[in-house]
Design brief:
Layout (H helix, E strand, L loop, with lengths): L9 H10 L4 H12 L5 E7 L5 H9 L2 E8 L2 H10 L4 E4 L12 E7 L7 H11 E12 L11 H11 L20 E15 L1 H8 L3 H8 L4 H12 L7 E14 L2
Parallel strand pairs: 1-2, 1-4, 2-3, 4-5
Antiparallel strand pairs: 5-7, 6-7
């Protein structure tokens, strides 16, 4: 299955609005601290913005006066336009951003670069960034670990055995990914962020993961997947607890 087909369903766009973990702001805060960022650019693009959670975090960061969200899924863009204020949203691809050359001071790509032609995206970022602009690529893995519930990681392993994460057309992002890019890596950090879930919140969240979308597109039932998850998670969530997300960011700027 082509990776770009995983995120087109209306039900998934609705889940992205209501159920994705609110960790984008934490990650952007670390970026600001790492780069000692003390300026606001005129225009920023959130590439692969999904339903707008990452865009909302970008708006609230104060890093840009105008923000444009771009995503190839019309369903995602519809939800973003409905629920996020303070930005413009358009359907488009990260490999061909709908902005002029040198017009953008900041691009963010949150968990989206993996599902693109990475080198084309990096070349496109180089085209649209101003000479002192910055591309911030970041992501967080599925929340699978908790000091308060050690069995969560075992549940996660069982879940993936039943419904594996798709790998076809998906690129793992590492520092070496940027070795041949027309951009210079200026910062890279791996770290952990956390947020608190109760049972229903965690169920809603995991149902938005790519392995669920892939399984449903291959014929599995949403009710079957959620029912299995609820049955096996109920004993773990006797009360809300913090779930940890392995995260990273990479910051790049145009080569001189």
């Amino acid at each position: 299955m082509a990776s770009d087909r995983l995120f087109l369903a209306d039900w998934l766009a609705e889940g992205y609005v209501s159920s994705r973990p609110p960790v984008h702001g934490q990650i952007l805060g670390r970026v600001v601290s790492e780069l000692a960022w003390d300026r606001s650019t005129d225009v920023a693009v959130d590439s692969g913005c999904g339903a707008g959670a990452s865009t909302s975090a970008l708006i609230h960061s104060g890093l840009a006066r105008q923000v444009l969200g771009v995503d190839p899924s019309a369903s995602m863009i519809l939800e973003a336009n409905t629920h996020v204020r303070g930005a413009s949203f358009v359907v488009g691809k990260a490999e061909a951003l709908p902005v002029g050359s040198g017009a953008v001071g900041l691009i963010t790509a949150a968990g989206s670069l993996n599902f693109t032609n990475v080198q084309q995206c990096l070349a496109e970022a180089r085209r649209v960034l101003s000479p002192d602009g910055v591309l911030v690529v970041y992501d967080f893995a599925t929340g699978r670990r908790s000091a308060q519930s050690p069995d969560l990681e075992s549940w996660y392993a069982d879940w993936l055995r039943r419904w594996p994460t798709p790998t076809t057309g998906v690129t793992a992002i590492r520092p070496s990914t940027f070795d041949e890019a027309p951009l210079r890596l200026i910062a890279y950090e791996s770290f952990t962020v956390a947020t608190t879930f109760d049972l229903n919140g965690y169920l809603d969240y995991v149902m938005t993961e790519s392995n669920v979308s892939s399984a449903i597109r291959s014929g599995a039932s949403m009710e079957e997947i959620r029912g299995w998850c609820e049955q096996h998670l109920r004993s773990l969530f006797e009360e809300p607890f913090q779930v940890e997300f392995d995260s990273y960011f990479a910051c790049l700027t145009p080569q001189p």
